[in-house]
Specification:
Blueprint lengths: L6 H10 L6 E5 L5 E7 L2 E7 L6 H16 L17 E5 L2 E9 L12 H19 L12 H5 L2
Antiparallel strand pairs: 1-2, 2-3, 3-5, 4-5
């Protein structure tokens, strides 16, 4: 399935997260399908992962994100599905995909107009992320894709 042909998968995700008749703003992404979901209950961020991400992969990522949040980094919490899961599994055209939902965080893409202070703050955040990440001891059952699997052909 082409990443741009994901309407059925996105609708299944809406149903899993109990969002009826939302407005969808598709966002650019290199590999996943991301969308801003606009509802009467507020705005949300939906990440529909590419098909090679398993439930174990997603659970491992979410565990790491919780670790970062517990260390004081401002990371949005995921929104549970109607059934209480931290993500939804959706299927279309024989492909299984994982969908993760969180609250939308307003902001602007800075691009080339970033000011010195914004670049400095980004560096500070990356340093905090790096320090916290070095303290992470993943559970034995964690599954993380190696970057070689993503970028080396």
């Amino acid at each position: 399935m082409n990443i741009d042909d994901s309407t059925e998968l996105i609708q299944q995700a809406f149903n899993a997260f109990d969002l009826l008749l939302p407005e969808v703003e598709l966002l650019h992404s290199v590999d996943h399908r991301n969308a801003r979901i606009i509802t009467k209950r507020g705005d949300f961020f939906l990440k529909l992962l590419v098909s090679n991400h398993t439930a174990a992969d997603v659970n491992s990522r979410l565990h790491f994100v919780e670790f970062l949040r517990d260390g004081g980094l401002s990371v949005p919490s995921v929104i549970a599905t109607k059934s209480g899961c931290r993500f939804a599994s959706v299927r279309a055209d024989g492909q299984q995909r994982q969908a993760v939902m969180s609250r939308w965080i307003d902001g602007d893409t800075l691009g080339p107009r970033a000011r010195d202070r914004q670049v400095e703050r980004s560096g500070e955040l990356l340093a905090r992320l790096h320090v916290r990440s070095q303290q992470y001891d993943p559970p034995d059952e964690s599954k993380f894709r190696a970057w070689d699997d993503v970028y080396v052909t």
